[in-house]
Amino acid sequence: MAQLKYLGIIPPMPDHPRILLLKGEENNIKKNITTDPDWANVHQNILGECDRILSTGPLERSMTGKRLLSVSREALRRIFFLSYAHRMTGDEKYFRRAEKEMLAVSGFTNWNPSHFLDVGEMALGLSIGYDWLYDSLSPASRTVIKDAILKKGLDPSFSSRHAWFLKSSNNWNQVCNAGMSFGALAIYEEIPELSKTIIDRALQTIQLSMGEYAPDGAYPEGYGYWDYGTTFNVLFLSAIDKVFKKDYQLTELPGFLSTAAYFENMIAPSGKCYNYADCGLGGNLSPAMFWFATRTQDYSLLWNEKNYLTDKKNKDYLKNRVLPAVMVWGSTIKTENIPAPTQNMWVGQGKNPVALMRSSWTDPNAIYVGFKGGTASSSHAHMDAGSFIMEANGVRWAMDFGMQDYNSLESKGVDLWNGAQNSQRWQVFRYNNFAHNTLTVDQQLHNVKGYAKIDSWSSEPSWMNATTDLSDIFKGQLKAAKRGVAIAEKKYVVVRDEIETLDKPTSVCWTLLTPAEVKITGKNSVELRSKGKKLTLKAVEPQQVNIRIKSTQSPNDYDAPNPGTTLIVIETEIPAHTNAAISVLLIPEKTGANQSVQKLSNWPGDKK
Q1: Strand partners, 205
Q2: CA end-to-end span of the chain, whole Å?
Q3: N or C: which terminus of the chain has fewer CB atoms within 10 Å of its end residue's CB?
Q4: Which of 546, 547, 552, 553 is nearest to 527 (CA)?
């Protein structure tokens, strides 16, 4: 076996159950659900979902394209829920159903190691069941499940063909290392030396993906993959800390503990997220946030989670396969003690820097802007540097499509994961710059290797703003390009671009994607209507622009349909060797706006 770098001499391993929740610690959860009706409601909803699962048949090995992932995820959800229900109630019906599920997936020919996420999630789920239900499992069942964890989970992770995740910095690293470590903890007695190697390997290699949070906590893969990768990262840290009483200083890595604030600020007043990159609109309970709040003692991080948790009509969180973890990590938290955040702006650098601004945390009609720099060359990224979303009066006026289902593209032969400049990925309608709220020059794609950081920002209420230099994004297309986005006087939004052309006349398109009904009302103005609300878009400079409405339907048979959406395009022609500005106002109804926009150099802001 490889020499251990981190673990050293291991103290005696706790008896089962040892993963996340030791024997007797159920009492902390029981006390919480007895004294807090919100936690009691979540607990009862989990039990109700377990009762529903009892009426279903066990899972079967069914592939979706090249993935078994949907089956692995459902196995994790069922086993975790049922194991929780049995530990909390002692009811044998939950144990029997969990055992049946575990034996079914243990009998699969394999867990699809060619797509190792499938193995990681399956191993994690089976390990929780094996550990939490250990005392109830028969020796025969233990043997079957233990052998499956070892032979279908842990052993394949030593194959160079499958273990590339160990050298990856994206969410695969976090998910697969967590799954393998849970397996190693679950069956430690059977394979102590191998288990030590696996855990030590994870402690070393998970730092690659944890490095992605540096320096401030902004996660390059966006909201959805934050929830995925970070949740499994936290599962790993929580399990390691529970057994070894330390986290080997992993939480001290730059940006990691700060990343919870990024995640919280990514939710807009509508409850939907800023869905840049390969992301859905999201917005639901995240168990990992309760770990962060407890770890940092900052309970304002749970402002959004409180809303999800206390909404009696909301049962969407029952789809979350690690939901029982929220009962573990939230067992000392009272919902009535969760305050609103005090800061209305959050900025983070990194591979995909973001500035997240709002006029209020408590007003559902608040203005919200999510604005990003970044690069198209990072994991799951789109050509969206300079893009933004905007909400006001409970309506998302400026939107992002987010991701398209991977299998819908892969099944039609799209070379989706090749990120080269002229690859097919950038022909997918939702992925290139033409369908994002940014600039396009002479109908060309952004420079895939270009990068833009957040150059300056200010949380000053009269002109909350951030700026970025996009020159590298338009390398060879423009001499220089800068963009600033501001919430002015908590009333309206300003988007200003300052452009310097090269030695030829240049066409620049300013685009805004919207789900609203759109009507051009003048040579420089557009009216947007949605949900009985209205917003005015006004191009205040230059005076000579061409505003047109563009369809979001693609002629490509592999592109998803985009019903109910429209692209507003503001086009201007700029002569060679010219400095020009494009200033656009987004004005909610019943508010006014100052029609003059200052140069970006005059905007208040700190630099970092």
Answers
A1: none
A2: 45
A3: N
A4: 547
Cβ burial 36-59 (10 Å sphere, 16+ → b, else e): bebbebbbebbbebbeebeeeeeb
Tokens encoding 479:
């001499």
Question: Can you say how many angstroms the Cα of residue 57 is from the centroid of all Cα atoms in its chain?
Answer: 32
> 440 with 511: CB under 8 angstroms?
yes
Cα distance between residue 488 and residue 466, in whole Å:
12
Nearest of 274, 550, 272 to residue 429 by alpha carbon: 550
Beta strands in 410-491 (DSSP E): 439-441, 454-458, 463-469, 480-488
Q: DSSP states of 119-136 as a string?
A: HHHHHHHHHHHHHHTTTT
556 CB neighbour count, 10 Å cutoff: 14
CA-CA distance, 324 to 183, in Å (whole number)? Answer: 18
Alpha-carbon span 361 to 381, nearest angstrom: 28
Can you list the alpha helix ranges (DSSP code H) found in 90-169? Answer: 92-106, 117-132, 139-148
pLDDT of residue 97 exceeding 90:
yes
DSSP state of 150: I
At 141 the three-state DSSP class reads helix
Residues 6+ apart with CB under 8 A from 282: 223, 224, 227, 267, 272, 273, 275
Q: Which residues contact 314 (CB under 8 A, 6 or more apart)?
A: 284, 308
Main-chain dihedrals φ then ψ at residue 552, nearest 5 degrees: -105, 10
Residue 212 has, within 13 A of its CA and on its CB side, a CA count of 24
Closest CA to 268 of 151, 145, 399, 180: 399
Residue 17 preceded by cis peptide, ω within 30: yes
| Cβ–Cβ < 8 Å for 122, 74 | no
- Name the token pair of 527: 């009216």
* Contact by Cβ (8 Å): 47, 327: no
Q: What angle do CA 50, 56, 62 make, to 5 degrees?
A: 115
Q: Is the pLDDT of residue 428 over 90?
A: yes
C-alpha closest to that of 587 among 493, 458, 520 = 493
Whole-number Å distance between alpha carbons of 247 and 53: 35
Distance from the Cα of residue 468 to its chain's centroid: 23
CB of 534 closer than 8 Å to CB of 394: no
H-helix segments, 218-361: 222-225, 231-244, 259-265, 287-296, 303-310, 324-329
**Bridge pairing between strands 525-530 and 533-541:** antiparallel
Q: In this predicted model, what pLDDT tens digit does every residue of 265-307 receive, in sequence order?
A: 999 999 999 999 999 998 889 999 999 999 999 999 999 999 9
251 and 366 Cβ atoms separated by less than 8 Å = no
Tens digits of residue pLDDT in 120-142 = 999 999 999 999 999 999 999 99
Q: What is the pTM of this model?
A: 0.94
Q: Is 529 helix (H, G, I), strand (E, B) or coil?
A: strand
Distances from the Cα of 570 to the Cα of 222, 276, 396, 543, 565, angstroms: 28, 22, 20, 11, 17
Confidence of residue 607 (pLDDT cuts 50, 70, 90): low
Q: What is the pLDDT of residues 99-119, one digit of tens each?
A: 999 999 999 999 999 999 999
pLDDT in tens, 194-229: 999 999 999 999 999 999 999 999 999 999 999 999
Q: Which of 354, 251, 346 is nearest to 296 (CA)?
A: 251
| pLDDT (0 to 100) of residue 1 | 42
Nearest partner of 481 among 385, 588, 362, judged by Cα:
385
